[in-house]
């Protein structure tokens, strides 16, 4: 029993070291759980055998005690009847049953102590299995979180489209187009104003020339 317990303690103690070095901790935990499950099944089978054996030793012990008590009563009855030889034989058989009862009692106490140790080990195995299974669930959740974080980083990490920056670029482009359009419109307006101004200047010049011609004609006539 103590050897089995030392093996279990060493195995449990080495689990954390194996997890720290493992690339896939869930796989390491699954291997450990499978091994522990096998040991639990074997320990349960051994426990049933020990329990049956211990109960049999207890029954043998109690039966031997009952026979010893029965022979003692028979010896008393024989003495009361004056049959000393019969009483002697009954007491002789009583001693045999007492010795038998003592041997079975010793075997029973030893087996019962081992049964208690086995029950304790079995409970420790079950507790350990539950604790490691809970740790497995934690690692599964942690690995899922890391997987989702990787997907998030791949989707929105560096090199991915930044919608805010994209819209800013569009706004800048539209602003450039708007400024260019406004500049062209201003240039057209300036051209039209220049033509109007030029037309007025020509009209003024023609009017002046016309007045000069009228004056010459008046002077000549």
UniProtKB/TrEMBL annotation:
UniProt xrefs under InterPro entries: PspA_VIPP1
Keyword terms of this UniProt record: Coiled coil
Coiled-coil stretches: 101-135
Signal sequence interval, chain numbering: none
Keyword Coiled coil: yes
Family named by the database record: Belongs to the PspA/Vipp/IM30 family.
Protein name in the entry: PspA/IM30 family protein
Organism: Cohnella suwonensis
